Amino acid sequence: MADLAEYIDGLPNICGSESELDAAIQANLDKPVFLPDSAIDFNKIKSAFSVALHMHQPLIPAGGSDLSTAAMISNLKYMMDNQHIGDNHNAPVFHWCYKRIGEFVPQLFDQGKQPRVMLEYSGTLFHGLRHMGLDDVFDTLKYATNHPQYRQGIEWLGCPWGHAVAPSTPVQDYRLHVKAWQHHFAAIFGTEALTRVRGFSPSEMALPNHPDVSYEFVKTLKECGYQWVLVQEHTVELAENGHGVEQKHLPHLLTCTNSEGESISIIALIKTQGSDTKLVAQMQPYYEATSLQRWDYKGQSIPPLVTQIADGENGGVMMNEFPDKFFEAMSNSSHSETPAMNGTEYIEHFFASTGLTEQDLIKVQPIMQKRIWDRFTAGEGSEKLTKTINELQKEDHCFHMEGGSWTNDISWVEGYENVLGPMEKASLLFNDKVLSNNIPSSDSRYRNVLLHLMMSQTSCYRYWGQGQWTDYGQEICRRASDIVNYDF
Question: Are 422 and 481 in contact (CB under 8 A)?
Fold first, then answer.
């Protein structure tokens, strides 16, 4: 198919060509992405490491003094325009952070090295950067992503377009986020580049643990063509006994079963504990990997993979120290017994060299589900499941079905009713007046309201607590609801 236009009627191209993109993705699913050109001998290395950079800026109603009429702008633009406030002076450095990896990877390849990095950029960041006219970011990233000599080093990870957290976003809306990101990415980097996106990174590493929601989460990823998902180690448990993961540096199989007894699975790569950007900025995964040897698993000798993800622009260490450490680690690891490998590259080598299948992987499930399955038989239905969950919550105040993320100190639900209420209203209106009436996704009205709905579901409006950010969230929800009521 021909590549998509990046903007239609002034709006980012986030919907309308889903069937064509799905066909392109499905047609390439059986084709390896990195294996044919990988120069790494999987049978001889002793270990490997993988780093991912998460990049995000929300869109906020701050393009004017009146909240109810202010233009939607990137938080980065607000920072650029108000560098005298707080840490906003970092805005120019953030701009460089979004671009620099597209320069680093070609430089290292030109030096004969074997750099690897995984990138995850939210759709709100893409739109915000383009709206600001920061075309240099896209030119640099697109060149490195698609150049035959350099693209081996960069793996893009899919994510929800609006940086929505899966546990508290309506499942039908979360699916729209996933599809919209694919659509937007293809419009920027090309359809062929989209067919190489096989891994998925959930915002805030938030994994739903309610059986019905986690099932829909994995179902969405699988139906959208994703082959693996990145999970935080403390958001999953061993399916057989509910214990924590032990062999965290091997691929696992995330298996989710719903109240009707349906099960679905996807490969999971496990990000080890820790969310501090210093871990990635100082390339800790490389140094940890150098201390490891090959592991025996099911009669096979396998190099373990140490995996970490962190914000790629936040914190002084990431902003200032990462470049030198990245060049140092990539230089030292290249052609060594502990090379850098991207997630899909490692998985492709793993199965090609061992003869193992997905069903040979250790099975994990979202945290706290073992306690449900000890009392509830899959297939007994949603009413019985709800009753079981309520009983467990009464017995143990620590038991919850709000999902798990990089920190279990934060609830994505409790205390945010003033934002979640308007979000649910906007979602219901969209479902009742747009989805239920089969309005085509190519309709400009559909695109406009979808854009506002997804912007309103950005996690920042909850994570940053009460005050201005919840005001932003409520205002965007109001706009989304008003657009539905007015246009439909």
Answer: yes
